[in-house]
Design brief:
heterodimer; A: alpha/beta; Rossmann fold; two-stranded antiparallel ribbon; 8 strands; globular; B: 328 residues; alpha/beta; five-stranded mixed β-sheet
């Protein structure tokens, strides 16, 4: 794992340079736990990339490297009736909700032990037992679904859940976003839409930067049109994300009305694993972004506050490196889906095909 | 048995299910206060309130997608397409989400959703407001597509659709909303995947669905009185799942078939029916299966052109005569 961390010397220099002292609202134990989850995601995603390059994972592959703090902070607030839905950069969300990394990796390998039995692959992870409702491959297409799920959470009796609806910055130009957000605002006025929109703003819709895609580059302001309140957060700072998540999930749960949180981030990895030329951005830009790698920033905090030692960091990294390796081993050794699976799950009853 | 209109048959089915099951809601454009542009939902808002009878903005993709989410989350939404012509706006939701979610979730999620509305032409609505989409939606695995022709079937299929665990598209015959028929008061459903023999006959099998069934029945009477031809008329009712057995059994008896449809011939339901017959009844056919379809043009406006664009009685009689080798 290549992360950038400032040396202790640089860190103390920064601390004495008039930076505002940060008052952490996240306990040391919580911060360590959040860190561990981000490391889990990072090593898992690196293992996915390796497997893709080896030709063992087919189709498309979109990893979350660089964006870990967002889903990690937000999904740490999940409650029993909640639902989570996102697009195709979905490995992190399902892992953070508690899916077995082995089943997730096996899905990417197209194995019968996969999370969705080898029927969906990387873009269509589902684990409804762990509140994860997909996993969608068409940019923007899942947004109205999340709004509908949120309606159900206040329509159906005895439900205090909310929906965390993730979308990338690329989706915000799509009609499905505008139609879905409009309904969320409309239904939210009656307390019938506890939907927390999470705009993962990694600044590129595939290879097209925001300023090449819209004249109004203040993306989160697009929610204003639908009377959905909003704010932005540093998506590289796990504490900031977590604090916003605690506050906003509570607000959405209580009001039954939507809220939009923009998490500013950067996709350190390419868009898809096959996006190796990256003609649309410079190496310097990526190098600069790596300085704010969310995992590196968190390690700095953990060390600065003497929550963990360098040795403990190394141990944690090894632990999750091993976990990813175990997932790969499981996936490689798993059998392919039985051919009978081809025709099942089209309809509830098995016989209705033509 | 009460005689009610096709329109009332659909409405009463929805109302009965809404009474029975709180999870059932109806949503669409101007279905509440306005009562629905075809009055199919008229009165439901007063009975069930705005949480269950939802007027939506004119944004088919958005509200159809939201209904899919509601269905996944345990509700039983019924979406009204003001007309199926507008469903192209929602095609991404219907095809990419509703049809596929059960499959790509490995069976973890289901979409018990009904989408209903008027389909087909005949009232000079011209190019963008005239489509018959059975073939289009019937193409996609994961969807169920039905096209009832009678008030009895419209009522029974509506209830069947609401209780179905998968997405069902009901392509109503818009031109038939005012037609009347018997609908029993006691609860019943019409199962999918089963065609209906609308008229028994021995000489030739006429196959259609939707408003063409009435045209076929009328034409069959004419054939009987003027030409001495005893035609069997089959109402397909269910496009997907499809009932091969009933049409094959009929052709084994009559040895001849004409398939009629309002939609375009290329890649259409009639083409599919003809293929099924040659696969399963080849040895019984005494003539090639004839297809009578809409003209291969966007629907025209002028009344005479519109009439010419859709199958009529003469087109059917011509086809029947060709199949019977009576005249060219």
């Amino acid at each position: 794992m290549a992360t950038t961390r400032n040396s202790k010397k640089q860190r103390s220099a920064a601390a004495t340079n008039g930076d505002k002292p940060h008052v952490p609202q996240v306990s040391p134990e919580q911060l360590l736990e959040l860190y561990r989850k981000m490391v889990l995601v990072r090593y898992f995603e690196e293992a996915c990339q390796t497997a893709f390059r080896q030709g063992k994972v087919g189709g498309y592959l979109h990893v979350y490297i660089g964006q870990e703090a967002i889903a990690t902070g937000l999904l740490a607030t999940i409650q029993p009736d909640d639902r989570v839905i996102t697009a195709y950069r979905d490995h992190a969300h399902v892992l953070l909700l508690g899916s077995d990394p082995k089943a997730v990796m096996a899905e990417l390998y197209g194995k019968g032990t996969g999370l969705v039995k080898g029927k969906g692959g990387s873009m269509h992870l589902f684990d409804v037992e762990h509140k994860f409702w997909g996993g969608y491959g068409i940019v923007g297409g899942h947004i109205p679904l999340g709004v509908g799920m949120a309606y159900a959470q206040r329509y159906l009796p005895d439900n205090t859940g909310i929906t965390q609806l993730y979308l990338g910055d690329g989706a915000i130009h799509n009609g499905a976003f505008h139609e879905g957000a409009n309904l969320a605002g409309l239904w939210g006025r009656e307390g019938l839409n506890p939907c927390l929109f999470v705009l993962e703003n990694n600044q590129y819709g595939m290879g097209t930067s925001i300023e090449r895609a819209t004249a109004n580059t203040d993306l989160i302001s697009k929610f204003d049109s639908y009377a959905i309140p909003r704010e932005s957060v540093d998506g590289m700072d796990i504490e900031a994300v977590y604090e916003a998540a605690v506050r906003l999930t509570e607000r959405v749960r209580e009001t039954g009305s939507p809220f939009a949180l923009e998490a500013m981030t950067y996709r350190i990895a390419p868009h898809g694993a096959a996006d190796f030329l990256e003609k649309y951005r410079s190496k310097d830009e990526v190098r600069e972004a790596r300085k704010r790698d969310p995992i590196g920033l968190t390690e700095t905090k953990l060390l600065d506050r003497d929550i963990v030692s360098e040795d403990e960091i190394t141990k944690i990294r090894q632990e999750y490196q091993q976990l990813a390796a175990d997932a790969v081993k499981f996936a490689e050794e798993s059998p392919e889906p039985p051919l009978e699976e081809l025709l099942t799950d089209v309809y509830a009853e098995p016989e209705a095909v033509g | 048995m009460p005689v009610i209109t096709y329109r009332e048959a659909i409405k009463s089915a929805m109302a009965e299910e809404m009474e029975r099951d709180d999870r059932v809601v109806v949503m669409g454009e101007d279905i509440g206060l306005y009562g629905g542009t075809h009055l199919v939902t008229d009165g439901l808002l007063d009975r069930f309130g705005p949480k269950r009878v939802m007027d939506t903005p004119i944004a088919e993709g958005g509200f159809t997608g939201a209904a899919i989410g509601m269905a996944m989350a345990g509700m039983r939404p019924i979406v009204e397409m003001m007309t199926w012509n507008f469903s192209f706006q929602a095609a991404d939701q219907i095809i990419q989400n509703a049809a596929k979610i059960r499959y790509f979730s490995g069976g973890q999620a289901s979409v018990p959703l009904v989408i209903r509305g008027p389909n087909g032409g005949g009232v000079q609505l011209s190019a963008q407001h005239t489509h018959s989409l059975e073939g289009f939606y019937g193409h996609f695995p994961g969807l169920k597509v039905v096209a009832p022709a009678t008030p009895y079937d419209a009522h029974g299929m509506m209830i069947e659709a609401i209780r179905d665990p998968d997405p069902v598209l009901i392509l109503e015959a818009g031109a038939l909303y005012g037609t009347k028929g018997d609908v029993p008061e006691e609860e019943y459903t019409v199962p999918f995947g089963k065609s209906r023999i609308a008229r028994e006959g021995t000489d030739i099998t006429l196959i259609g669905y939707g408003r063409q069934v009435n045209l076929l029945l009328k034409t069959a009477e004419k054939l009987a009185s003027n030409e001495g031809v005893d035609a069997e008329v089959i109402d397909l009712r269910s496009i997907r799942p499809f009932d091969t057995e009933t049409i094959v059994d009929s052709v084994k008896k009559t040895n001849r078939a004409v398939v009629i449809e309002e939609q375009w011939r290329w890649f259409s339901v009639a083409s599919e029916v003809a293929a099924h017959l040659q696969e399963h009844a080849f040895d019984y056919l005494d003539a090639p299966v004839e297809r009578v379809s809409g003209a291969e043009v966007p629907a025209p406006y002028a009344r005479n052109l519109e009439i010419a664009a859709f199958p009529g009685e003469d087109d059917i009689i011509d086809a029947v005569n060709r199949v019977l080798y009576r005249r060219s």
